[in-house]
Design brief:
With 297 residues, the protein is an alpha/beta fold. 42% of the residues lie in helices and 14% in strands. The longest helix has 19 residues.
């Protein structure tokens, strides 16, 4: 396929509904900005571990163009320790309540990144629109019920292994794309059986969550196949450790490889990109948008 055809092709994606908005991924995906209210985030090392800093960070990302802010109070990095439900609620609910005040004026949505159903439910009551479960319903048996009960949109992130020990618990895949897609579809089917509309269920292949470097690269190279499934998709590639496992990138700060990775999966078709570097990612996406819509390209 020529470069022209690759760029100008219209990726086949399913729309992701959040409240009254449809995220189609056409001509470019929406960007989700990450706000970690943790002391041990792999990326920012607790830089935003306070109400004022986290709120300011979130609003800055919205100003840069993020359409969704993903608020997380518990780190999922390798070796991370679990925190109590009470502590997680203490970290995230005040931030969500404050961001809720700005949603309509600044035109963005709030996502809660949690594996705990009670945290998810309280976050939606506080103003969150999306439940982002990095375990794809596998950790908390009540999560599916809460997603249905709250009528929130949801993201199901593929994970193998136990929380914080995903890499230590690594089990080889028979075929990583087939295994990941099959397990994600099984989780999505649980929600569909409860009556959750398919357009409110978004699938994330879970780059770095219990996967080897080769697994991650294979999934990224299969992005187009994932976009052709019956559900909308999200990719979280930003600053992840798989980049540093590439021998020629072991000393990288992972910034440029993150932007390139985002561009590649956007080219292949996805609805949302979950990133730390919102402004730079959106600049790259605007280039793709120009190439796709320029009539004489």
């Amino acid at each position: 396929m020529s470069l022209q055809k690759l760029i100008r092709q219209k990726p086949k994606t399913q729309s992701f509904r959040v409240a009254n908005t449809l995220f189609t991924g056409i001509p470019i995906p929406a960007v989700m900005g990450i706000v970690n209210i943790t002391q041990d985030s792999f990326f920012d090392g607790g830089e935003y571990y306070s109400f004022s800093k986290a709120t300011s960070r979130a609003l800055k990302l919205v100003q840069e163009g993020a359409k969704i802010i993903d608020v997380g109070g518990e780190s999922s990095r390798p070796g991370a320790s679990k925190i109590s439900e009470e502590e997680e609620l203490r970290r995230v609910i005040p931030i969500i309540e404050e961001l809720q005040k700005h949603k309509k004026e600044k035109n963005f949505y709030i996502s809660i990144d949690t594996v705990k159903s009670e945290v998810a439910e309280q976050a939606v009551l506080a103003g969150a629109d999306i439940i982002n479960d990095i375990s794809a319903l596998s950790i908390d048996p009540n999560m599916a019920t809460v997603i249905h009960k709250t009528k929130a949109s949801c993201i199901l992130n593929h994970l193998r292994g136990s929380f914080g020990k995903m890499q230590q618990d690594y089990t080889p895949y028979d075929d990583v794309f087939t295994d990941v897609s099959t397990e994600l579809l099984a989780a999505a089917n649980k929600l569909a059986i409860l009556g959750v509309p398919k357009e409110k269920i978004c699938l994330d292949p879970g780059i770095g969550f219990g996967k080897s470097l080769e697994d991650n690269l294979e999934l990224i190279s299969s992005a187009e196949k994932l976009s052709k499934m019956d559900y909308p998709t999200l990719w979280g590639l930003s600053r992840k450790s798989f980049i540093g496992k590439i021998s020629t990138l072991k000393n990288s700060d992972r910034f440029i490889p993150s932007i390139v990775s985002a561009f590649l999966v956007a080219l292949s078709g996805t609805n949302i990109l979950r990133v730390h570097d919102v402004s730079a990612t959106i600049e790259a996406l605007h280039l793709l948008e120009a190439l796709r819509t320029y009539d004489t390209f």
